[in-house]
Amino acid sequence: MGDLIEGFINYLAVERGLADNTLLAYERDLNKYAGFLERSGLRSPAQVSRDKVSEFIFQLKKEGLQVTSICRSLAAIKMFHRFLVREHLAEEDPTALVDTPKIWKRVPDVLSLEEVLKMIGVSGGDDWQHIRDNAMIELLYASGMRVSELVGLRVENVNLDVGYIRCIGKGSKERLVPIGRQARHALSVYFQKVRPGLVKGENPSQVFLSRLGKRLSRQSVWKLIKHYALKAGVRKTIKPHTLRHSFATHLLQHGADLRSVQEMLGHADISTTQIYTHVDRERLRNVHKQFHPRG
User: Fold this and answer.
1) Any idea which residues carry the catalytic annotation?
2) pLDDT tens, 33-46?
C-alpha cells in the first residue's frame, strides 16, 4: 500500500498541482488508512470492501476527530481508490457508495476589535523582536492572510508605496490584498530598522526572518500569536487562523460586501466565506437576547 500511496501523492502533485500542505494532509490520512487495513489483515486494494471503509470512518469518529477532518480523510480515500481504478491497479472502487458525513458549519472563534488592539499593543517595543512581531501581527490582521502565506511572503511581493501585498495561497493561486496605513508603517519600520540586521549570507527572499536569518515556520508564528494573546489578557482559544477570522468578521460587521471579502481571503467558493455571516448573526442574536424585553 505504501508504494501505491506514494504514486498517488506524486500524481496529485504533478497532475493536479495541489498545495504542499494539502499533499501532506492527504498522505497522513492515507497512511493511517493503510495502517488500519493492515491491522485488519488486508494488504491489497482488491480486498477492501465498502463496509471496511465505513468501519474506518466510524473509527475516526470514535477517536473524536472533527467532522471536517473526517471528511478530508474520506475525500483522500475516495480519490485514492478512483486513482487505482483509473490506473488499472484495482478493478472496483469500494468508496463509490460511501456517503460523506454532513459537515456542520461551526462558527469560528474571533477576537473583538478591543482584543486585537490589545495584542497589537503588547507586541510593540523598541527591540528587534518586538518590531518584527508587531509587523507580523499588524499584517495578519490588516490582510487576512494565512499564517502559511505570511511565512512564505517574499520581499518582491510587498509594495508599501501603493499599499498592496501579493499573496500566494492554496494551489499556488495569487491574489492582491490591500493593507492599511498602520500595517504599512509597521512593515516600513521593520524593513528599515530590523530586517537588514537579520539577513545572513545570501539575501533571503522571505520578508520575516528568525534571529539566525532563517525563514520562520508556521508553528513558531502561531506560538508568538498565542504568546501575545496571553500577554494581552485574551482568554479565548487562539488558533493559527484567529486573526484571519477576525479580519473577515470585522469587515462584514462594518459593511463590507461578501464578494470583496471572498476575494481578499482567496476563497474559491463564496460558501466558505459565508461562514462569517453566521458570526455576525450570532452577535445580533446575543444583542437581541440581552436587550429585547421578551428576549
Assistant:
1) 146, 170, 241, 244, 267, 276
2) 999 999 999 888 88
